[in-house]
Design goal:
Helix content is 38%, strand content 17%. By secondary structure, the protein is of the alpha/beta class. The protein is globular and about 55 Å long. The structure holds nicotinamide-adenine-dinucleotide and uridine-5'-diphosphate.
């Protein structure tokens, strides 16, 4: 495979750090750009000794001049507590960030991939969700800064494609989990695992009957890299694991895999506009991306993620003990 210089925005975050590692393993040069809002250097510390890796502190809402062959645009807080912390900045990150990265792609003639989201479907009335579904999104709610920001970024990508013949790719990512998630990230998989390991109450919002389909990070990264390197197909394409679970089932599975936990399940109010169900139709991805299909199912993915968090807290305890 031809070696490339690749920019990953949001590269120090959960998904970005896995993507940087994969691209280095494939022999490419990687520029990881991040403002460290939700990401951190620890996620990429093992990559720093690689001479093909470069870390830049930069905010995508400002332009940047680099010479690259490919751009993966991941910069954007992804968990509701983080994207709702400063909603105006969230929209700016998606929209101004897309404009700046598309401008960079235009100048350098780089191929550019947008990390879009299943949230563009909102609280879907079509189930499972196919790429031709236009969605059911509240434009003025608490989740809108994220959902509408990502929808506008998709619009920009397709307008740059039509107007400037940019070489774009768009993937719509469904709930993804795995090592390097922030322990206080607020997303459901990390929340339940951290709560169970710390013997804290497991917080189910609502009655736990809402559903999500959980994809292990390695499957997503494989899909993203295939999509970036696929000729003649720009998307949008769903990348997710179609196995659907209720949030209550997820809590029970986490507790089953951490048998020593003394945590109890408690119920809290359901946040506003929380989608009731979500499941990707991945027929298009399977067809267009050489039979791509998620391989790691929930039990195994949860076990790996639990292993990561156990180690994370053990290291933390040692740090505290040595202070
Ligand atoms: P994350 O919060 O761990 O990573 C986002 C990264 O972007 C962080 O490192 C953060 O510091 C950085 N960032 C935020 N604003 C920035 C800015 N203005 N300039 C530069 N860097 C900035 O989240 P993640 O789960 O790794 O998500 C990565 C991307 O994938 C996001 O665009 C997200 O919308 C998308 N996505 C993720 C999921 C998922 O389930 N993990 C699902 C759908 C879409
Ligand atoms: N959720 C929950 N307890 C938590 C965190 C989340 O019950 O501690 C629920 C949340 O209300 C939603 C689902 O889990 O219905 C997935 O939430 P997450 O924030 O992970 O992803 P998203 O809602 O963006 O799909």
């Amino acid at each position: 495979m031809e070696k490339k210089k690749i920019l990953v925005t949001g590269g120090a975050g959960f998904l970005g750090s896995h993507l940087c590692k994969r691209l280095l393993d494939d022999g490419h040069e990687v520029v990881c750009l991040d403002n460290f809002f939700t990401g951190n250097k620890d996620n990429v510390i093992e990559l720093m000794s690689n001479p093909r890796f470069e870390l830049l502190r930069h905010d995508v809402t400002f332009p940047i001049y680099l010479e690259v062959n490919q751009i993966y645009n991941l910069a954007c807080p992804a968990s509701p507590i983080h994207y709702q912390f400063d909603p105006v900045q969230t929209t700016k990150t998606s929209v101004h960030g897309a404009i700046n990265m598309l401008g960079l792609a235009k100048r350098t003639k780089a191929r550019i991939l947008q990390a879009s989201t299943s949230e563009v479907y909102g609280d879907p009335q079509v189930h499972p969700q196919t790429e031709d579904y236009w969605g059911h999104v509240n434009p003025i709610g608490f989740r809108s800064c994220y959902d509408e920001g990502k929808r506008c970024a998709e619009t920009l990508f397709f307008d740059y494609y039509r107007q400037n013949q940019l070489d774009i790719r768009v993937v719509r990512i469904f709930n993804t989990y795995g090592p390097n998630m922030h322990p206080n990230d607020g997303r459901v998989v990390s929340n339940f695992i951290v709560q169970a390991l710390k013997n804290e109450d497991i917080t189910i919002y609502g009655d736990g009957s809402q559903t999500r389909s959980f994809q292990y990070v390695d499957d997503l990264i494989e899909g993203m890299v295939r999509m970036m390197n696929q000729d003649g197909f720009i998307g949008p394409v769903n990348l997710g694991n179609p196995h659907e679970f209720t949030i209550k089932e997820l809590a029970e599975r986490v507790l089953h895999l951490i048998p020593e936990s003394k945590s109890k399940i408690i119920y809290k109010p359901l946040p506003e506009d929380d989608p009731l169900q979500r499941q990707p139709d991945i027929t298009l991805a399977k067809t267009k991306l050489d039979g791509w299909d998620p391989k790691i199912q929930l039990e195994e993915g949860l076990a790996r993620t639990i292993g990561y968090f156990r180690e994370y807290f053990e290291k933390d305890e040692k740090k505290v003990a040595s202070c």
